[in-house]
Write a structure and sequence with these properties.
This protein is 36% helix and 20% strand.
Length: 214
């Protein structure tokens, strides 16, 4: 039995060494979380969905683009300030997660309004202050409704319904989405669920390990 255990230990050791060599040769990180969304395979390389570029306006009336999150992890969601159902719970839960990473230079937060007509820059600023948001780390953004809704549906896959961002169109989702430094979707979480928030905290830390951010 002792010889069997020694043999297993040796094989495991060789396996870890081989994996390390492979990782060094491929120069690719060990994937710890799945990648969500559509993908294509070209010449045996898998090309995953990438969150498209965007340009919105934050609570301090500044332009926010993908450049702000270049090489960073971020959590995105959709809400509106006058919501009395799921949004208050979502925002409180996002605030709790934000507090865990407030001083982490590699993790950011991006909350999009689904009501750009009602959620002006000043409204977003007040709302962000109510939730203790550092405006350099947690961005509350508004913009063109069609672009906001297009990003929710085509960028983050947060809403499966068809819509054009018109007057009668409405997106209302409880989900948070986790984006990695390569702009890939790595997880979805119910923003009203305490259990999912524990999972989100753990998986942000896993992403940091994957991209060697500690």
């Amino acid at each position: 039995m002792k010889k069997v255990l020694i043999t297993i230990a040796i094989l495991v050791g060789f396996g870890l060494i081989a994996l390390s060599v492979f990782m060094n040769k491929s120069n690719k990180p060990l994937r710890l979380l799945p990648i969500y969304g559509e993908f294509t395979v070209i010449n045996k390389d898998t090309l995953y969905h990438v969150v498209p570029d965007f340009s919105f306006t934050d609570q301090n009336n500044r332009e926010v683009t993908q450049d702000k999150f270049k090489g960073k992890i971020y959590v995105a969601d959709y809400f509106f300030a006058t919501c009395q159902s799921i949004c208050p719970i979502m925002s409180k839960n996002m605030q709790k997660v934000f507090k865990d990473f407030e001083n982490d230079p590699n993790v950011f937060f991006l909350s999009h309004t689904v009501d750009p007509e009602g959620d002006s820059v000043s409204v977003l600023k007040d709302y962000s202050k109510q939730h203790g948001a550092n405006p350099e780390k947690w961005f509350f953004v508004t913009g063109d409704k069609k672009e906001l809704y297009k990003q929710a549906r085509k960028g983050y896959y947060l809403d499966a319904n068809e819509g054009d961002g018109g007057p009668d169109d409405f997106v209302h989702t409880p989900n948070f989405v986790l984006i990695d430094p390569d702009r890939h979707i790595r997880g979805y979480y119910d923003g009203t669920s305490d259990q999912d928030m524990v999972k989100l905290l753990a998986e942000i830390k896993l992403l940091k390990k994957e991209f060697v951010m500690d």
